[in-house]
């Protein structure tokens, strides 16, 4: 497929309504990527102990770091288009961070997840020894007092580029308050629910192949508490929730492909104000072309490996959980995908 011809043809031929549908599907993608914490904001505020150690906002009475925040600019894609997708909680923190990457010619697609509590060693936006060296904090610190979502996304994009040594070409962010209505609007999603969900003491889910409504999908997406519910392919407690959200994303994309244009338009009109993105219309049209012309099951899902550890932070006199990336293995994965 000639990408340039396809792109220019899309701009000339496709209607404004088609662009709206493209935005709608991007909104759905973003909503599910962040859904794992939509109802978890109370846990963040209370500091509840959960299985994967949530990042709890820490108040540090000190001056801001003197270093200037790096200003990210999108790179020109060469072989792949890499879009940073962020799901934000009510504090503007990165609850889930993923990179949606597709090859410009073959449209081979990857969804790469980073844990929100990933340690960022050489950051310039948080006070040292404050427990704010998590990737989760980057968007919050970038937004500043003006709650500038685009500034927060740019700081996160720069942080991820520096962390992984790869280029990003666009970003898109969304909050979670529309997640339940999204799933309900598209008619629910079909998921094979592990039997452990039926054994939860609170908010159980029926086991087996089920069509989940918005409330049930939210429970499925956000589970972090004990007992651990392992996902297929999981070899440790790390990444179960990310794998669950990746599965849920594929299920939502499948369901979207069953809907008529008018139905998608109605959903878009409900969600338009929830999206912040640097993507131009033709970027989104390319993205929608990828999503509609590939089986969601063919999307390659990756969770970058590492190990979790609690580290004492002198300034706040407490231990903070960090996830330390295995850079050697992560580099190998990204190189195999052609992204480095």
Notes on the structure:
With 340 residues, the protein is an alpha+beta fold. It contains eleven helices and ten strands. The chain has a six-stranded mixed sheet with strand order 7-4-1-2-3-8, with helices on both faces. Helix 2 packs across helix 10 (281-292). It starts with a helix and ends with a helix. 44% of the residues are buried.
- At CATH's second level, what is the architecture? 3-Layer(aba) Sandwich
Percentage of residues in strands: 15-25%
CATH topology: Aminopeptidase
Number of domains: 1
SS field, number of helical segments: 11
For this structure, what is the CATH class? Alpha Beta
As a percent range, the share of helical residues equals: 25-40%
Radius of gyration: 19 Å
| Major sheet characteristics | 6 strands, mixed
Detail the topology: elements first, then pairings.
Layout: H1 3-13, H2 16-34, H3 41-46, E1 80-88, E2 94-103, E3 109-114, H4 137-143, H5 149-164, E4 170-174, H6 179-185, E5 189-193, E6 208-212, H7 214-222, H8 240-256, H9 261-271, E7 275-277, H10 281-292, E8 300-303, E9 306-313, E10 318-325, H11 327-336
Parallel strand pairs: 1-4, 3-8
Antiparallel strand pairs: 1-2, 2-3, 4-7, 5-6, 9-10
Helix pairs in contact: 1-10, 2-8, 2-9, 2-10, 4-5, 6-7, 7-8
């Amino acid at each position: 497929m000639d990408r340039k011809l396809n792109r220019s043809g899309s701009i000339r031929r496709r209607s404004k309504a088609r662009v709206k549908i493209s935005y709608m599907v991007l909104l759905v993608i973003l909503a599910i990527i962040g859904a794992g914490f939509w109802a978890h904001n109370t846990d963040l505020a209370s500091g509840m102990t959960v299985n994967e150690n949530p990042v709890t906002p820490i108040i540090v009475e000190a001056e801001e770091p003197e270093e200037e925040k790096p200003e990210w600019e999108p790179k020109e894609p060469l072989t792949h288009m890499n879009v940073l997708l962020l799901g934000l909680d009510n504090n503007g923190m990165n609850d889930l961070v993923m990179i949606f990457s597709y090859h410009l010619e073959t449209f081979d697609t990857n969804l790469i997840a980073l844990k929100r509590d990933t340690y960022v060693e050489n950051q310039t936006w948080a006070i040292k020894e404050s427990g704010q060296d998590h990737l989760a904090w980057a968007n919050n610190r970038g937004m500043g007092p003006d709650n500038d979502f685009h500034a927060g996304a740019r700081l996160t994009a720069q942080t991820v580029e520096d962390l992984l040594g790869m280029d990003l070409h666009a970003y898109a962010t969304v909050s979670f308050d529309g997640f339940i209505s999204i799933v309900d609007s598209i008619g629910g999603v079909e998921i094979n629910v592990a039997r452990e969900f039926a054994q939860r003491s609170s908010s159980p889910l029926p086991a087996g192949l089920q069509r989940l409504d918005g409330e049930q999908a939210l429970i499925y997406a956000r589970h972090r508490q004990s007992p651990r519910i392992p996902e297929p392919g999981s070899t440790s407690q790390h990444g179960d929730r990310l794998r669950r959200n990746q599965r849920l994303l594929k299920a939502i994309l499948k369901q979207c492909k069953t809907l008529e244009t008018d139905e998608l338009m109605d959903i878009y009109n409900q969600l338009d104000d929830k999206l912040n993105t640097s993507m131009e219309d033709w970027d989104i049209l390319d993205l929608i072309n990828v999503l509609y012309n590939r089986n969601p099951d063919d999307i390659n899902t990756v969770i970058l490996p590492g190990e979790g550890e609690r580290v004492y932070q002198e300034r706040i006199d407490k231990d903070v959980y960090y996830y330390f990336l295995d850079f050697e293995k992560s580099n190998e994965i990204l190189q195999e995908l052609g992204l480095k």
